[in-house]
């Protein structure tokens, strides 16, 4: 029996370092019975192999391994599937997040390129006045990176850099990941208890 989705989100994962952030976010959304439209770039698959040590020769098996067993609904889309529902502003979509967001994808969005489904869907979110969150993971930042962040911010996107906090006294890598994913869920308006908030008891 498929539960009715609480809401609908689009998640993009690009080739920036930090693929685990995107994976964890999708898992948390599915755990909470949301419908997720997932778009991965070719470079994201390379990072899955290098950082998550996944055998990416069979991509369907990787998706099954990472995201099966949850109550939510997962729909994956090819990067160049312009017929996907998320490519249209008429499709109801509660928000979109690209986590992590490469500087190349940021540039494409900032300049309205719509060169692939990820960029097109981001453009749709902006033109429809919907929630768009970009999670860049790059250091150091050059002037073009900063200018592109400012450009997307001016037209309604939220820039949420992958900068973990330490005031919750993380004890391991998992808690650092959960902090950033929790901040992303906050921006999407999704309730969670992934980290101890400032002022709460540790």
Automatic annotation (TrEMBL):
Q: Which NCBIfam families match?
A: PRK06029.1, ubiX_pad
**Entry's Pfam families?**
Flavoprotein
Enzyme Commission number(s): 2.5.1.129
Gene source species: Halalkalibacter kiskunsagensis
Residues bound to dimethylallyl phosphate are 167, 183
Q: Which residue ranges does the record assign to the Flavoprotein domain?
A: 10-188
Q: What is this protein called?
A: Flavin prenyltransferase UbiX
The lineage is:
Bacteria, Bacillati, Bacillota, Bacilli, Bacillales
Domain of life assignment: Bacteria
* InterPro entries (UniProt xref): Flavin_trans-like, Flavoprotein, UbiX-like
Which gene is the coding source of this polypeptide chain? ubiX
The chemistry this enzyme catalyses reads:
dimethylallyl phosphate + FMNH2 = prenylated FMNH2 + phosphate
